[in-house]
Amino acid sequence: MKVIVTGSLGNISKPLTQELVKKGHQVTVISSKAERHKDIEALGAKAAIGTMEDAGFLSATFKGADVVYVMESLAPDAFFDPNVDAIAAITEIGKNYKQAIEQSGVKRVVHLSSIGADKGVGLLQFHYNVENILTELPEEVFIKFVRPVGFYTYMYTFIQTIKSQGAIIGNYRGDEKEPWVSPLDIAAVIAEEIEKPFNGKEIRYIASDEVSPNEIAEILGEAIGNSDLKWLEISDEQFLNGLLESGMNPQTAQGFTEMNAARRGGRLYEDYFRHRPILGVEIDKDAASKRRGWSLLIHPDFLWNTSLAKTIKRYQYFNYSVNEALHLSEKEEAIINDIIENMEQEYRSNIDNFSQDIIVSQLELLLNYSNRFYNRQFITRKKASSDLLVKLEDLLNEYFDRQNELQSGIPTVKYIADKLNVSPNYLSDMLRTLTGQNAQQHIHNKLIEKAKEALSTTSLSVSEIAYQLGFEHPQSFNKLFKNKTSISPLKFRNSFS
């Protein structure tokens, strides 16, 4: 299916995009930031750069989609801007979505709403407004309203008062259980709902666990080594004043205060408990202690006067991008960990004349194994690599068929890599593993192919062909052509006479 995802690469939209791409859907991700273009395409999706405030852009992007996932958001600093009416701004986005859905002809929509959208209490008024706006769409437009509860990521806001006052502070009681949700669970539910049949207007709540504020304080306290961390209830007035003192927009501060006040006695969750969902993942109290890993830091001076100092630059993966990381099998991971353990053991032993040589040799062994495992990764991920080869071929054909681009000269490896959303070194190493030739050689091969085509099918002079292919000097073209074919361009042309 063709699916449109709003929300750029946020905590929900990114894992949602990854899941949909994994399932074989054609995904377009809408983002207001042009710099996200490369990151979106790296996930296997198409990027559409524009804003939720532009109904025309939304309508054009939605056109032809099987399903559209819509959500509303403002810039993080909007809640602290005294000139921003958050409720009005997000309500306007809802109107833009309605207009775009009608104009594009989309018939299936998944909308990210929220707990409390049934009442619209406090700041949740905008969720109430948008749900009602989208409900006005024609009957043939089917909509699924997903209503997640409080996000686990909201707990980051606790950090300030934990640091300043040694407590988590809120204007509601700490002994009443309330639902919380992981953004990953939200993404999983949305992906599921996109593939399930649509029927009219439907509502689904999403929650991962139900836990009281006191229990949250205990769990977080254990994780950060502060067993005395407590939940502290304060009055609405104190809570509101604290938000205002932090610089929050008065309307937004009042909205947060009213929303939290509705948590007292479970008033905010009445409809949730009437339609209580199956809970997702449970909170793992020992999660912090289960996370393990290591990092290896080597000062450059340590390698001086060693053979590795001269050869370390040959390990091209140091210049790979983060998304081109090495994925190890269990067997490979065990090999790497054994090497690290040997290095650590040597590091912690008494230093002698052999210590440096032994550690450096282990480091070189680690780098060589990493090279071997990357080579394996290029081969075992054959489909992804083959897809990249096809994209490379299409990109080179497109480049050489466009005269305006050729005015910029012969395409560089960096230009090609950027277009393919990979690093130059990763591209060359992958191509070398799969084809025996690096990226530069592939570019030269395409140049020769296009040159032969022009020499054999047109009456253009050799110089004209050279300029047409992006060469600044015909002599450079002649030299490359002869180097690759063992004959000059003119002799190649004469062979057809």
Task: Describe what you observe in this structure.
The protein has 497 residues and is α/β, with parallel strands linked by helices. The protein has three domains: 2-288, Rossmann fold (3-Layer(aba) Sandwich); 300-380, no CATH class; 383-494, Homeodomain-like (Arc Repressor Mutant, subunit A), CATH 1.10.10. Helices cover 51% and strands 11% of the residues. The protein is built from 23 helices and twelve strands. The protein has helices at residues 13-22, 37-42, 55-62, 86-104, 125-135, 159-165, 183-195, 213-224, 236-245, 250-261, 270-274, 287-290, 307-311, 330-348, 355-380, 382-401, 403-406, 413-420, 424-435, 439-457, 462-468, 474-485, 489-494, and strands at residues 2-5, 26-31, 46-49, 67-70, 108-112, 142-148, 150-151, 167-170, 178-181, 201-206, 209-211, 230-233. The chain has a seven-stranded parallel beta sheet, sandwiched between helices. Strands 7-9-11 form a three-stranded mixed beta sheet. Helix 4 (86-104) links the parallel strand 4 and strand 5 (108-112). Helix 3 runs parallel beside helix 4 (86-104), helix 9 runs antiparallel to helix 10 (250-261) and helix 21 (462-468) crosses helix 22. The chain is globular. The relative contact order is 0.07. Residues 281-285 have low confidence and may be disordered.
Please supply descriptive tags for the structure shown above.
12 strands, 3-stranded mixed beta sheet, globular, alpha/beta, 3 domains, 497 residues, 11% strand, Rossmann fold, 7-stranded parallel beta sheet, Arc Repressor Mutant, subunit A, single chain
